[in-house]
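User: Second chain of the day. Same drill as before.
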Amino acid sequence: MKYKFDKRLLIFTIFLIIIITTILYFFLNLPKNFYKEKIITITIPEGYNSYQIANLLEKNGIISARKFLNYLNLDYDKFDFLKDKPNSVNLEGYLFPDTYEFRIREKPEKIVIKFLNNFNNKVNKEFKKEIEKQGKTIHQILIMASILEKEAKNFNDKLIISGILWKRFFANYPLQADSTYIFGNFDSYKNKGFPRKPIVNPGIESIKAAIYPKYTKYWFYFTNSDNSIIYSENYLEHQKNILKFKYVE
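Assistant: Same format as last time:
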């Protein structure tokens, strides 16, 4: 029996071989890093709140802001430093400001854990031991640090203001810090004590200032128009200074 030669089948077979060979050549000669997911480097500024961080992550294609914020409400029990954080508040204050590398569409829990691991490394054993020695909690320290982050720019002012605010806190006197209302919706003029959670995510200088306050004779302060801090020993002097500097302006 003779087989009839099919020219069209031969052409199709040759064409298929060319396509397969081309595809194999393409994949075998790709750059070594082609298969790696794209890495995005992001710097989280000191004093950002969780909403600002969420929007920054979304803007860079890492994760949707809503999903990230939802994962801040979950329990991350393996981190001992969270033991004093009330379950009713999220991880505001614990998202350590720093430069991070994230993969595009990285798993939400991995992103949060990356923040918490960095916090655990930066707020080291020495700091934790000192906080415990003072009879304070990490959560209290972070609330104080978050206030200092927004109350002052330079480290020395943060140290002095930390001393003032801790004195007020333990004397059951209102903190009277504008930042608690502006950034945390907590009126520290009418209410005594701390807000329930940090108002922003503080940097390491603010955390250090909260742990190691500089106690002085001052009880009052305000920020002048040139961003310098004016300190006073008592309320009468404080009022005089306000009038004096407003008059000078």
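The mean pLDDT is 90.

User: Great, on to the next one.
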